[in-house]
Request: fold
Amino acid sequence: MSVRAALGVIGRYVFAGFVLVFFALPLLWLLTAPFDSAPSVQVSVPDFTLENFRTLWDNPYAMRSLGNSVIIAAGTMAITLVLAALASYALSRVRIPGRDTLLYLLLLLSSIVTGTAAMVPTFLLMTELGLIDRQLGVVLVLTGGLLPTAIFILKDFMDSTPRSYEESARVFGASSLQILRHVVVPIARPGLATIAVWAVVQVWGNFLVPFILLRSPEQQPAAVVMFTFYTEGGQPNLGLISTFSLLFSIPVVAMYLFVNRRYGFRFHGGIKR
Amino acid sequence: MLVIAVFLLFPAIWTLYLGLTNWRLTGLAAREPDFVGLENYTDALSDPDFRNSLLLTLVFVFFSAIVGQSILGFALAWIARKLRPALRSVVETVVLLAWIIPASVVAFLWLALLDRREGTLNALLGTDGTAWLLEYPMQSIIVFNIWNGTAFSMLLFSSALASVPPSQFETARMAGAGTFATLRDVVLPNIRGHILTNTLLITLWTFNVFAPYLITAGGPQGRTEILGVYIYRVALRDGALGQGAALSLIMIIINLVVAAVYLRLLGRDRPSRRGRKSTRERRA
Reply:
């Protein structure tokens, strides 16, 4: 038995080591190349320099695309948050027949009409609306995709806020919107924060929607511009790409760490995400 | 509601109509598309490229999601329980990083890893000059997708394993059950619902994945042209919008079938689920 136990321990650590190498190997390049004065595609001990960051800073094309990413992510997050808060509060408080079915249907819809499957109709719709090559189009399409899940998760939070708070506010003559702003929002803040971060992470890394809908490089977010760095340029500029990748990845990693520390990972409701 | 209706529901319905026309991105048919009935669907179903793409997608989903991500994710969750906390958090963080870093970045990391001349993998294995993406394209994107998506299965199975009552593990240990017997008789019956959820969700997501396009762009010679990439080529690069809409609808229907199976099975499982949820709420 003790031999078996020892073998078990060894097996565990071998497996953990294997997994660590498998998952860390591709990531290492992201840590070495940006600081290398002459980066290649191979992982190597960098000849330390911060010159690449200066090059990146001076590249207006790269910095503007990061700005675009911020605009698109912030816009989508804001619209999703406001609409989802209003909708989930209403759905949590009003008794409509078939409310839960409606929510399930919306959720079902958003998971089957994905960006990939609805690529063609989305493109055509935006062409008809004249929103091709405009960031507003991207924001609206992404918001539409995120809303059902956001409403579904937020409704869980809204359901758990005690009604007695709202009733006492109403006794003092507060209107519905005032109650929402001063009573419900402060209580549901963890839920709202989760949705905000989740929305930003989803949008930040999204490649397909802006890739299809935006044509001019001035409009494109980092996810798309990065791709053009290494397909059009013949020889890719590795110093620029690696540094840009690192800078582009940091916000989502930081946000993930923040949420994880603060709230831990939560799986919500029927559909877990 | 309106936004959802306009940007989610309406495109879906419009696809139905467009799939019946010969609309094109440019040229004569762009102005006045003709109604061609079911021609796009019959064309798609008899097109060898489409069949090839569907087959590739099935292979891709089966090996990268159902086999790869599930098993690796479960193994990670299972092993992690017995690792030292420091090592455990290192392993989990690395797996999670692969999941949350944006797809464009991740795709380039893999291009660098698999590079023919100077790639890290060739340097480590001593297989200089092996063009992984040309010689083993499908295997490459399958391994890539396992790497990219395992974190979700790991997280889900971690929380599933945490929900198994410790007393049952204790009983199994007292009875002298080995690892295999414990997994089969204690763990499996407890986490059946989680396995189902996990399998169906990662199937749905992997089926709709577009990231391999950034690595192989469907090549070489269409050998990695999974469904999403194929639709992109037909509709937006080659401009056959009517046919692309038909293909989109076929893809949405496949999604619907997977999701419907999921909700159906979830519904059957509901009483126990509701019980679990209410205990969580009470605790909160």
About this structure: The two ends of chain A are 41 Å apart (CA to CA). Confidence is low (pLDDT under 50) at residues 266-273 of chain A. Chain A touches chain B through 78 residues (CB under 8 Å).
